Amino acid sequence: MNCSSPDIALYVGTYTSGESEGIYKFQFNTETGELSQLQLVGKTENPSFLSYSPDRNYIYAVNETEKGSVSAFKMDDNGKLSLLNTVNSNGAHPCHIAINTTGNRAVVSNYTGGTVSLYSIQSNGHLDEAYKVFNHNAPDSISHAHSAQFYKDKLYVSDLGRNGVYNYQLSENQEDYNLITPSIVSMTENAGPRHFSLTNDGRFAYIINEYANTVTSAKKNGNHFEPLENVSTLKDGFNGESYCADIHLSKDERFLYGSNRGENTIVVFKRDNISGKLEKIQNMDVHGNWPRNFSLDPSGNFLLVANQKSNNISVFKIDSNSGKLSFLHSVDLPSPVCLLF
Asked: N or C, which terminus of the chain has less Cβ within 10 Å?
């Protein structure tokens, strides 16, 4: 008999300019979708993006400030976080952090600074100072590095300011990354690529564009990606101001989800697994204001949205057949901006 609890931890990064004090933790029920047992687990400034180590013994958080820093935390037995150390992000307003699959390297994107910093992670979870800083700023364009992901021996970096997604290749000595191509795919003018999702096999990329309110779909061809299409994330006929934020594939990769800040919806696309093309099937009201980061729970049955300006987290049930969302409930929390399962 399986006596394991359906409750799992959900960690929430926030902005701390108001009532929030740092990183919070809920218990999330993977059977009912209920959020409970809210507690403050780590006091830190503006932890606007969080990432686990692969063994889930450590959590890493950016501190999105003008000075810019990155903090490493150890997971205590009670679920609280103990600060290990804090290092310089080497750029203003770090907004994203990712850890590689072996857990020995981190990459941080500095939005205002326009830099991307690489870090070694010690076996005890501590961060070393950055060993490499890529400056994406150019004489004729200002960088706004927004997110990065490790994929096997590559590092992809989305730069909203430079309007491209960069491809770095790990060197033969496994210690350095070198730029292969400025943008893996040609973007429409002033699209503003913010976040992106790759299929598990790395053959398809889906880039959500903050300014254009579109998803750019692309198929891998050598070191580049061939563009497939640009699809609007907004409802037909919507004329208001809106800015895309986050993007995630479902576990089976049959559906793609994106957040619209302004229209205040989650857009749902049905994905053709062979061609990679998308069909928009729903724009679901987030029951809040300014949906920033969102997350699918490990069961794949629920989608949770961090509504930054309305100070709440909305929970949706996912229909496993259609991929569509139905609203369940909402809980209050000051300035939630990142959800980590």
From this structure: N
